[in-house]
Design goal:
Elements lengths: L12 H7 L1 H9 L5 H7 L18 E7 L4 H11 L6 E4 L7 E3 L1 H6 L9 E4 L2 E2 L4 H16 L3 E8 L8 H9 L3 E4 L2 H11 L29 E5 L5 H14 L9 E4 L13 H11 L11 E3 L6 H8 L4 E4 L2 H9 L4 E4 L4 H9 L5 E4 L4 H16 L6
Parallel strand pairs: 1-2, 1-4, 2-3, 4-6, 5-6, 6-7, 8-9, 8-11, 9-10, 11-12, 12-13
Helix pairs in contact: 1-2, 6-7
Keywords: Transferase
Protein name: Polysaccharide pyruvyl transferase WcaK-like protein
Pfam families: PS_pyruv_trans (PF04230)
């Protein structure tokens, strides 16, 4: 048995054992190999922390897609704040709350970073284009030049393109610690850099501790949330056809659907779920539905706690988004992950197996829904009436 963390992972074994005595007991009894193996296999998706929080440390800087009006990215930030509540965020458009600045402020001011500062790059899927990776590299170089440490934490690498593998290699070479959020990301980074990064689940899993304080509000009608992402015409047509088919007649349990937007993008209409929700509502011909709210549009919640409160009203989720699948798992909801052929969705399904998680391609949504609905109804039947 060893509690020594693998290269790339920041982990305090003594603190972990003291903070989570159930894990320490399991290690002593032989039920778990080691403290660090528990953290990597279970702890990070249970919202357990790998090292003690630093509540007063305001010299921790975090870069992600924050301030872009996407609740999944804000959930990442809140997950970081479970470790560093006073962290300084580098945001893209407009910060939701807390301390922060635009990334270029750090690059324009040679005295922005100081010795002993910490720059965290991640989490989320940030390797989606060369300019973004180059920006992270520039921030890392600026921090290192002033004696600061640079960590890459829980990074999603599913979208990395060969067009900028050179910049990715340079970025990872500057990191003291480096972890990724999925086994697919682990393989991708190993192929690019030769570095085997430990897998820590997405920072949004750290919101697990919030869920018990949010009331579970079972609706009178069986309610399934639909969480969309950017869609091409073919996928949009599949979803609208599915909604038309499922909303024509009322079932005995009043099956209805609600659209939950995760992104109300400040600058990209294609990534604005509120616009897409309206398109789906019109395309589903709701004038012919059994009720106009057989498919209802719920409002965008910028704060992760508000979004989780929406999920706590659901019986199941049809999800096209990575962080929607995390929210559903936090709330213990049956989930139909749509886009199983996409690396990002496939990575979540592979890394988080569960009897409550099904997966399908978008063009197979109608066929996959029947067994999923059986699961949803079975889980709803277990809920004791108040």
């Amino acid at each position: 048995m060893t509690n020594s963390p693998p290269a790339g992972l920041r982990f305090d074994a003594k603190w972990y054992a003291e903070t989570y005595p159930d894990v320490a007991r399991a290690v002593r009894s032989g039920g778990v190999r080691s403290l660090v193996s528990h953290y990597l296999d279970h702890g990070s998706r249970e919202g357990r922390l790998p090292f003690p929080p630093e509540p007063q440390n305001d010299r921790v800087f975090v870069y992600g897609s924050f301030g872009s009006n996407n609740v999944g990215d804000e959930a990442i930030l809140e997950g970081v704040r479970t470790l560093f509540p006073a962290c300084h965020q580098f945001y893209l458009n407009k910060k939701r709350n807390g301390n922060g600045s635009f990334p270029h402020r750090a690059l324009e001011n040679p005295d922005f970073f100081r010795p002993n500062d910490l720059l965290i790059l991640g989490g989320g899927g940030l390797l989606y284009d060369r300019p973004t990776v180059q920006l992270m590299l520039d921030l890392a170089r600026a921090a290192r030049a002033r004696g600061a440490e640079v960590d890459i934490q829980r990074l999603g690498c599913e979208a990395a393109s060969p067009d900028y593998h050179d910049v990715i290699r340079d970025l990872f070479a500057l990191a003291r610690f480096a972890t990724v959020r999925s086994t697919i990301s682990q393989r991708i980074i190993h192929d690019i850099t030769g570095r085997l990064c430990p897998v820590e689940m997405d920072f949004a899993f750290n919101l697990q501790r919030q869920v018990p304080s949010i009331p579970r509000l079972v609706q009178e009608d069986l309610t399934i949330g639909i969480v969309t992402a950017s869609m091409g015409e073919a996928d949009r047509a599949s979803v609208t056809a599915f909604l038309r088919h499922e909303t024509r007649h009322r079932t005995p349990d009043g099956l209805r659907f609600v659209h939950i937007p995760h992104s109300r993008s400040y600058f990209n209409a294609m990534n604005n779920d509120c616009i897409l929700g309206e398109q789906l509502w019109c395309g589903a011909h709701m004038q012919s539905a059994w009720a106009e709210d057989a498919f209802a549009l719920w409002p965008f919640q910028q704060d992760p706690s508000g979004a989780l409160a929406q999920y706590r009203k659901l019986d199941g989720v049809i999800s096209f988004r990575y962080h929607s699948m995390i929210f559903a798992r936090l709330c213990n909801l049956p989930t139909l992950a749509v886009g199983a052929e996409l690396p990002k969705i496939a990575s979540f399904v592979d890394d988080n197996p569960s009897p409550l998680l099904h997966a399908t391609a978008a063009d197979n949504l109608q066929t996959a829904f029947a067994p999923f609905l059986q699961l949803v109804r079975a889980e709803r039947s277990k809920i004791k009436p108040r």
